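Protocol step 4 of 6: structure prediction from sequence.
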Amino acid sequence: MHRHLKLAVASLLALAASPLAAQQPGQSSAVYTFACDRDCLIGKLGEYMDALADRSPSAVPAAPDIVFTENNVVLALGEGIWGTVTGVDDVGLEVADPQTGNAAWFGSVMENGRQRMFGLRIRVTDGEIDQAETIVVRSMDLTRPSRPAVQLQHDPAFYEVLPPAERRSRERLQRIADAYFDTVELNDGLVFAPFDEDCGRLENGRSTTSKADPNGSFGAVSIVEGCEAQFELGIYRINKRVRERRYPLIDTERGIVVATAFFDHANEFDRYLLTDGREMETALKWPNSVTLLEAFRIRDAKIHRIEAVFTYAPYFMHNPFAGLAAPMPQH
């Protein structure tokens, strides 16, 4: 049984990809054919997760030259989490983009009896998975490593098909997601992204914007609730850079963008002031980066829902799928 959420409405309204797609970043030609429609891509996600649950990498419909990464390290398919996984969520948040042949899965797995948040992006070409990018969160929160397990509740809004009049172009959706990262970077109270007043964010299975989360909230929500309100206070000033931003999945029918990026925390200061004058202290005291897979649900050209899987990484780490590593910027 494929471990993925199937909504009848989504299945009925899913459209096949056009054989002629606009050129995407990293593609050598604007003429690129993907024979895998949305249902096909969701099916490939299910096959991958079923194979992972069975510890059977040979069951993945993989291309001979598949590139597999775990937390930005290139491994042979079957290494890493494949040797330690002991369970997979029956239901995950699934997103697909037939135009680029990419699909993503957000959820959790068990590793030797311990829950790990898990994010997966695959690319399907000629019916085979030729890229598999995974994030495995083995330290849920370095400031509170003993947090209890969570029962993930993926927001059904991610599956709602927008009326044609409410849809935005791929380019527009990407710009909105990019504006979010512009707001997070050097967060000083300026807000560049449009936010729905009901905006909610889930990070590693817990809300960072609402105290009403039954799994327990954490992070900035203890100071103020809401996406925009947190950014207006400058809570995330520790983000020195948001780099290697990539947008491999954009679903215009549902208003979804899936991005990958790094948040660089130089931690050159130990304390800083919010815009209301309150003092904040940094949680971690050393340079680090956060590597993430993040889904934005956008309605009426505003960010409505966010779900992210992230983990800490060495400072200024590089994602192999982002091309050549950029040099460290000068101060």
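Step 5 (inspection) to follow. The radius of gyration is 19 Å.
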